[in-house]
């Protein structure tokens, strides 16, 4: 059998064509809203962080964004994360959720977390949330979604089990 030998890629090499964009760079029209619903466990897949990056992009495109955390998603907003001390990176990326949610809020997005999931499921208090994250009543989950639907918002909803 003939062996094919090609050089391995090196740091800085481009292995795919990263441009040009295929689609127009859409910006929000005045008053346009977006809602991202997260019902997923942090660190058990990439969907949580990917949706936070998408949320950040939506804020930067001008959307009035709400990032809704419910079920295990409320754990993403824990202000008590870190090891050996709160705020320390126990491993590379350990603080990514905290940093990205803070970026979303600092740039104008709103982050809300279900009080039922916080208290009944995970024993979290509202004081355990990152500064700026608003606790909401469990009956507000559906009304948040319906409010955004009535406003014609872009709604992304992610569930993982």
Can you summarize this structure?
This is DsrE family protein. It contains 4 helices and 5 strands. With 161 residues, the chain is α/β, with parallel strands linked by helices.
Keyword list:
5 strands, 161 residues, DsrE family protein, 4 helices, Hypothetical Protein Ychn, Chain: A, globular, DsrEFH-like, alpha/beta, MSMEG0572
What report would you give on this structure?
- This protein is an alpha/beta fold.
- It has a domain of 101 residues: 3-Layer(aba) Sandwich (Hypothetical Protein Ychn, Chain: A), CATH 3.40.1260.
- Helix content is 27%, strand content 17%.
- The chain has a 5-stranded parallel beta sheet, sandwiched between helices.
- The longest helix has 14 residues.
- It is globular and about 65 Å long.
- The mean pLDDT is 95.
Q: Output mean pLDDT.
A: 95
> Numbering strands along the chain, what is their spatial order in the largest sheet?
4-3-2-1-5
| Shape annotation | globular
- Overall structural class, as computed from helix and strand content, comes to alpha/beta
For the record, give the distance between the C-alpha atoms at the N and C termini, rounded to a whole number. Answer: 46 Å
Q: Uncertain runs with pLDDT below 50, 5 residues or more?
A: none
Level-1 CATH class name of the domain at 33-41 and 68-159: Alpha Beta
Q: How much helix is in the residues?
A: 25-40%
Name the CATH architecture of the domain at 33-41 and 68-159: 3-Layer(aba) Sandwich
Number of helical segments?
4
> What does the radius of gyration come to?
19 Å
Strand content: 15-25%
Oligomer: single chain
Organism: Solidesulfovibrio carbinoliphilus subsp. oakridgensis
Protein name: DsrE family protein
